[in-house]
């Protein structure tokens, strides 16, 4: 059987590296990763995998033009991804997320290449705690942070390049991921590695904020389903129905799973403009493509978190060298 030639941007980051493993396991793909290796990218995340790796910037039209024509499909994960960083300096977000997506779309337009765009729930803004609605494919965009505004912009470019130029695209908007290889600046790995390093977990504000947590493998299985069976021109929401657990409860669960007093954590300064609640309605994806998350409901999330804790426990060499610098940066903003 002929393998599909796939170009994965941002494949050395958290979700991309897990995606590359998942896609290789199917035996259906020959993969090239294009990654700039920013502070968030790590070549070691792809160690031992049978792929081609190109270190380069998606904003570099020359590199993009060299790579796209020899691939059947582009799966676009590369981005600046951390809200807190976007509040300190939005400019790298504009460049990578908007200009970078533009360069990839232009190359896909020239070569009529299938393009899958990885996006986020944050483009829709946030919901009140008691709002019964969840985000759907037709929910209007209302991004709050510089990060989510740039992701929303990139989604708009993708839609426009499909409608105006006929680029064969799909988009997925997924909720908050957790799992192995996630950068320790993010909420769940930060708390796990705080405990492992003898520090307290750090909760922003009141902790009533709700994220619809999904295990990274469930996200990536959905991306594969969309690539293989999704309808071109369509957007798919991805979520695992975990929007009943707030940040305070997540910290309590992590503490419990790590054998600590559930309430042993610190309250720290809140994030300016902090989105209150995200919740996803992934019924279109489930109905049309038959996708189901494995790590769903409270038990599934506990299992996913327990596995993730084990991964960080067993991979101290992967995260420990960065821990001090990450915490020093947070300390500057009282977090
Ligand atoms: P990450 O920060 O862990 O990894 C991003 C990767 O992109 C890194 O390897 C980095 O080196 C690379 N990169 C950044 N700028 C680049 C550039 N200009 N050129 C080439 N490579 C570049 O991010 P992640 O959490 O794995 O997120 C991946 C994608 O998924 C992003 O598009 C993000 O918006 C989206 N997403 C993330 C989540 C989540 O919870 N983490 C949820 C929904 C959607
Ligand atoms: O130490 C912390 N304490 C804390 O309470 C950190 C780092 C975060 N938080 C809170 C803020 C959020 O309510 O936890 C929640 C999750 O925070 P992040 O991990 O920073 O994620 P979030 O801002 O929700 O965005 C994530 O999901 C959507 C990803 O980082 C984005 O890339 C993705 O698009």
From TrEMBL:
EC number: 4.2.1.46
Record has Chloroplast as a keyword: no
Superkingdom of the source species: Bacteria
Family assignment from sequence similarity: Belongs to the NAD(P)-dependent epimerase/dehydratase family. dTDP-glucose dehydratase subfamily.
UniProt keyword annotations, A-Z: Lyase, NAD
Broad enzyme group: lyase
Domain NAD(P)-binding: 7-303
GO biological process, one term: nucleotide-sugar metabolic process
MF term (GO), any: dTDP-glucose 4,6-dehydratase activity
Keyword field contains Lyase: yes
UniProt xrefs under Gene3D superfamilies: NAD(P)-binding Rossmann-like Domain, UDP-galactose 4-epimerase, domain 1
InterPro entries: dTDP_Gluc_deHydtase (IPR005888), NAD(P)-bd_dom (IPR016040), NAD(P)-bd_dom_sf (IPR036291)
Reactions catalysed according to its record: dTDP-alpha-D-glucose = dTDP-4-dehydro-6-deoxy-alpha-D-glucose + H2O
CDD domains named among the record's database cross-references: dTDP_GD_SDR_e
Protein name: dTDP-glucose 4,6-dehydratase
Cofactor(s) essential for the protein: NAD(+)
């Amino acid at each position: 059987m002929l393998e599909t030639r796939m170009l994965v941007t941002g494949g050395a980051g958290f979700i991309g590296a897990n995606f590359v493993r998942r896609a290789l396991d199917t035996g259906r793909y020959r993969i090239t990763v294009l990654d700039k290796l920013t502070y968030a990218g790590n070549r070691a995340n792809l160690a031992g995998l049978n792929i081609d790796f190109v270190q380069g910037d998606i904003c570099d039209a020359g590199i993009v033009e060299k790579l796209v024509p020899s691939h059947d499909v582009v799966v676009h994960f590369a981005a600046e991804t951390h809200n807190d960083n976007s509040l300190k300096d939005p400019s790298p977000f504009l460049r990578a997320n908007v200009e970078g997506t533009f360069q990839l779309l232009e190359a896909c337009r020239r070569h009529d290449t299938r393009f899958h765009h990885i996006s986020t729930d944050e483009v829709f803004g946030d919901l009140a705690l008691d709002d019964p609605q969840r985000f759907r494919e037709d929910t209007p965009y209302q991004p709050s942070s510089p990060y989510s505004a740039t992701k929303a912009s990139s989604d708009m470019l993708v839609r426009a390049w499909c409608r105006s130029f006929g680029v064969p695209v799909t988009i997925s908007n997924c909720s908050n991921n957790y799992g192995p290889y996630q950068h320790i600046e993010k909420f769940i790995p930060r708390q796990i590695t705080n405990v492992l390093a003898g520090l307290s977990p750090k909760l922003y504000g009141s902790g009533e904020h709700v994220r619809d947590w999904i295990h990274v493998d469930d996200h990536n299985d959905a991306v594969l389903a969309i690539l293989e069976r999704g309808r071109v021109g369509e957007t798919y929401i991805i979520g695992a129905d975990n929007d009943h657990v707030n940040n305070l409860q997540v910290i309590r669960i992590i503490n419990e799973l790590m054998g600590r007093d559930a309430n042993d954590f610190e309250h720290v300064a809140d994030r300016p403009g902090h989105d209150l609640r995200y919740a996803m309605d992934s019924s279109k994806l489930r109905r049309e493509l038959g996708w189901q998350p494995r790590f769903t409901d409270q038990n599934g999330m506990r299992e996913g978190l327990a596995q993730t804790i084990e991964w960080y426990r067993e991979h101290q060499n992967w995260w420990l060298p960065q821990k001090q610098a990450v915490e020093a940066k947070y300390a500057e903003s009282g977090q």
